[in-house]
Write a structure and sequence with these properties.
Elements (H helix, E strand, L loop, with lengths): L16 E3 L5 H5 L1 E2 L14 E2 L2 H5 L3 E5 H5 L2 H13 L9 H4 L16 E5 L2 H10 L1 H6 L9 E3 H19 L6 H15 L4 E3 L2 H17 L7 H14 L2 H11 L10 E2 L2 E10 L2 E14 L4 E4 H4 L5 H18 L8 E6 L12 H13 L3 E2 L2 E3 L2 E2 L5 E2 L4 H14 L8 E5 L10 H8 L4 E5 L2 H9 L6 H7 L16 H16 L7
Parallel strand pairs: 1-4, 4-5, 9-14, 11-12, 14-17, 17-18
Antiparallel strand pairs: 2-3, 6-7, 8-13, 9-10, 10-12, 15-16
């Protein structure tokens, strides 16, 4: 049979790099039809090289998820790599998908480096489930989702300059590049880092160039970048706008003034495709004598995820450490996110739930002009959360729509989250003018004092405010403090249950 040239590499061209977006039998191993009569030469297309032939002596890049959709294809690729030779697959409908073709390639030596592109979770699953995977793919290279701002000051301008040339866009001014770096910081939720997903930045720059051209500008300015970002938000904001309308017209109740016992404003984050936005909601707590501790109503009706359920259990640990040293905790409580009809998960509202519980136990009302975000541990430390900017901006928008800013409204955030603050212009202006406030707190004690205006009763609090009455084993917290009032309520619950033999 007359030899057929499958592939060639020009001398000095370097090692081949072949990428296959949709790996199949023919795309990886090539294809060949039944050989022609020996008296006639083979026709063009008799044999077509596969990616393994083309990448031999170089590199082959494959998407792991797509490759694993055909397990037999994945197993045969491993066989080739382990043996170091091109092994012709057997005629098998699982490979051929019904194609009437037969591979007639010889078994040739194979010198190729295969790179699988996969997410961290898929890599970990393969590493745990397949010993041969660990033998073949020994090096893991991760792409960071963020890069430092100082590095971005070099890479963003270079990238945007190349993008403008490649897409025939208007040049970008310094202010426009600075605005895109700020946008990258918002996407990364950091003041010190920006996103390395430059495709998202490129989309904004492309639309901003179009808007600048419509305005007759010779270069893209910061206003065009802002307009492009706002336009993308507006096109995907139907759900957000509908929810905002329900909040502002009172259909979904949210209080932004006054003070209420056992109720606090929490803020969750919802997603509508690529758009994420904050959603203020009321968390309420009701306490009564019992031994069940804090009960998560959402969990009872199977609307709560495991992380949220864990957050509620952490609250019981915190309350036990504070109030169960002299006698058992003798209370039951129900916690609920009012007027929420979607599944709840995450622990970013655990501090809000704890404040509602402390208020219900102590009888001290909580300010409704403040919203709260942050998770809490059993020691009472407030921990960082995600979606911080969207949460703050959502409560800001609701306050603005419900009668305007009063000058006392604001949001309590974890002190360890301050680096994530990348707020939009109107919110920054209101904060600078003293019409809206961000309170960075580290502990539940600090938060409860801000929400109630009453000393918490902690050791730090005694040093700052002085004790109303001295501490004793029977009264571990200063009289009049939030913790002392909560302790008194728990004592009363214990006494109510004691004749019934219920406390344990």
């Amino acid at each position: 049979m007359v030899p057929t040239l499958l592939t060639e590499h020009a001398p000095g061209s370097g090692a081949p790099v072949i990428e296959v977006a949709h790996p199949t039998l023919s795309s990886l191993f090539g294809r060949s039809h039944s050989p022609p009569d020996a008296m006639f030469p083979p026709e063009p297309g008799f044999a077509v090289a596969g990616a393994l032939h083309q990448a031999n002596g170089g590199f082959l890049i494959l998407p792991a998820a797509a490759l694993l959709k055909n397990e037999l294809l994945y197993e045969h690729l491993k066989s080739c790599l382990l043996s170091g030779r091109f092994i012709v697959p057997e005629q098998n409908p699982s490979y051929y998908r019904g194609a009437a073709e037969e591979l007639l390639f010889p078994s040739i030596p194979l010198y190729v480096k295969v790179m699988l592109v996969a997410g961290p979770s898929l890599f970990q699953e393969l590493h745990a489930a397949d010993p041969e995977f660990s033998q073949l793919f020994k090096v893991q290279a991760r792409f960071e989702s963020t890069l430092p701002v100082e590095e971005a000051k070099r890479t963003y301008p270079a990238f945007l300059s190349g993008l403008a040339r490649a897409r025939n866009l208007l040049p970008l001014s310094r202010d426009a590049v600075a605005e895109l770096i700020f946008h990258g910081g918002r996407l990364a939720e950091s003041q010190s880092k920006v996103t390395s997903c430059l495709g998202l930045v490129a989309e904004v720059a492309t639309e901003a160039s179009y808007l600048a051209q419509r305005r007759g500008l010779a270069a893209v300015d910061a206003a065009s970048i802002t307009a492009a970002i706002d336009g993308a938000q507006r096109r995907g904001s139907h759900f957000r706008d509908a929810l905002h309308e329900l909040l502002t017209n009172g259909t979904i109740r949210i209080e932004t003034t006054g003070a209420i016992v056992g109720q606090v404003n929490a803020i969750s984050v919802l997603s509508d495709g690529p758009i994420s936005f904050g959603r203020p909601c009321r968390v309420t707590a009701v306490v009564y004598p019992g031994s069940a501790g804090a009960m998560n109503i959402a969990r009872e009706v199977e609307m709560s995820g495991p992380i949220h359920a864990k957050g509620v259990l952490v609250l019981n640990g915190y309350l036990a450490s504070r109030f169960a040293q002299r006698r058992p905790l003798s209370f039951s409580a129900s916690l609920v996110f009012e007027q929420t009809y979607e599944a709840i998960d995450g622990d970013s509202a655990s501090s809000s739930e704890l404040y509602a519980l402390l208020s219900a136990l102590s009888g001290v009302p909580l300010r409704q002009d403040l919203a709260v975000t942050g998770s809490v541990d059993q020691g009472g430390s407030v921990q960082p959360v995600g979606g911080l900017n969207e949460k703050i901006e959502a409560f800001f928008d609701v306050c603005l729509a419900k009668g305007g800013l009063t000058g006392t409204q604001g949001v309590l955030i974890p002190a360890s989250n301050v680096d994530a603050l990348m707020l939009r212009g109107p919110v920054i202006d209101a904060i600078a003018q003293g019409r809206f406030h961000i309170h960075a707190i580290s502990t539940v004690d600090e938060g409860i004092e801000l929400l109630t205006g009453v000393p918490s009763g902690s050791t730090r609090d005694v040093a700052a405010h002085g004790a109303v009455s001295s501490r004793s084993p029977d009264q571990p917290y200063p009289g009049g403090s939030v913790f002392a009032r909560a302790e008194a309520t728990l004592d009363r619950f214990y006494e109510v249950l004691l004749p019934l033999g219920r406390p344990a």
